[in-house]
Amino acid sequence: MTNRGKLIVVSAPSGAGKTTIVRYLLGAGLNLEFSVSACSRAPRPGEKNGKDYYFISKDEFREKIDNKEFLEWEEVYPGSYYGTLLSELEKIWNSGKHVIFDVDVVGGLKLKEKLPERCLSIFIMPPSVEELEKRLMNRSTEKDTEIEKRIGKAVKELGYSPKFDAIIVNTDLEKAKSEAKSLVRSYLAN
Ligand code: 5GP
């Protein structure tokens, strides 16, 4: 693997605001490009193949695991596989950019473990579990059982936060965004 660019990993329990922060960082002039993961779940309304994810079947996913095409992969929810393709990293690094990831907590730690010396891992912390539940309830795309699954997973994930390079508490979104931007900027400058 060519090793020129750096990796910025942004992880958080679902509903903590990481996707908003990642989108902000992408537009903040930091020379970052989003790593599109492969996943085996069906696209949600509005999601585009190659932009939000590479939507592939479970069989294709398993084939790629066997062919060692992933830097990391995980069964994030029972039956739903997600992973980072090595080809995606190569593509971004070859274009002279750094890679930013929006992955779940376990995936984030795995990425940090794979390339520790060129990776900044950031944990986005919700202000409280109650607030996290509220945010997940307000998302209309998920069913109740899906929300319960995500809350259970989220509570467990909070326990992993000390393993990250930095923690940003997302009480005030604007503050969280600017904190993330200065962290990333100084990491990329060194
Ligand atoms: P969703 O189905 O809501 O898009 O994503 C479910 C979870 O999978 C999210 O927490 C998301 O960050 C995580 N995820 C997305 N891509 C990857 C990946 O490449 N690897 C891992 N381990 N998790 C991922």
Per-chain topology:
Blueprint: E1 7-11, H1 18-26, E2 32-34, E3 37-39, E4 53-55, H2 58-66, E5 70-77, E6 80-85, H3 86-94, E7 98-103, H4 105-114, E8 119-125, H5 129-138, H6 144-158, E9 166-169, H7 173-189
The structure holds guanosine-5'-monophosphate.
Guanosine-5'-monophosphate (5GP) binds next to strand 5, strand 6 and strand 7.
Which descriptors would you attach to this protein?
4-stranded mixed beta sheet, alpha/beta, 190 residues, 7 helices, globular, 5-stranded parallel beta sheet, single chain, binds guanosine-5'-monophosphate
Descriptive account of the structure:
The chain has a single domain (7-189), classed as P-loop containing nucleotide triphosphate hydrolases (Rossmann fold). Strands 2-7-1-8-9 form a five-stranded parallel beta sheet, with helices on both faces. A four-stranded mixed beta sheet has the order 4-3-6-5, with helices on both faces. It has 190 residues and is α/β, with parallel strands linked by helices. The longest helix has 17 residues, at 173-189. It has helices at residues 18-26, 58-66, 86-94, 105-114, 129-138, 144-158, 173-189, and strands at 7-11, 32-34, 37-39, 53-55, 70-77, 80-85, 98-103, 119-125, 166-169. Helix 5 (129-138) runs antiparallel to helix 6 (144-158). The model has no long low-confidence stretch (mean pLDDT 91). Guanosine-5'-monophosphate (5GP) binds next to strand 5, strand 6 and strand 7. Guanosine-5'-monophosphate binds next to strand 5, strand 6 and strand 7.
**Largest β sheet strand count, sense and barrel closure:** 5 strands, parallel
Give the proportion of residues in helices: 40-55%
- CATH hierarchy class name: Alpha Beta
Number of E strands: 9
Radius of gyration: 16 Å
Count helical runs: 7
Helix/strand-derived category reads alpha/beta
Low-confidence segments, given as residue ranges, are: none
Would you give the CATH topology?
Answer: Rossmann fold
Percent of residues in beta strands: 15-25%
The backbone outline, from C-alpha atoms, is globular
Question: What would CATH call the homologous superfamily?
Answer: P-loop containing nucleotide triphosphate hydrolases
Number of domains: 1
- Lateral strand order in the biggest sheet: 2-7-1-8-9
Distance between the termini: 22 Å
Order of helices and strands: EHEEEHEEHEHEHHEH
Q: From the coordinates shown, what is the CATH architecture?
A: 3-Layer(aba) Sandwich
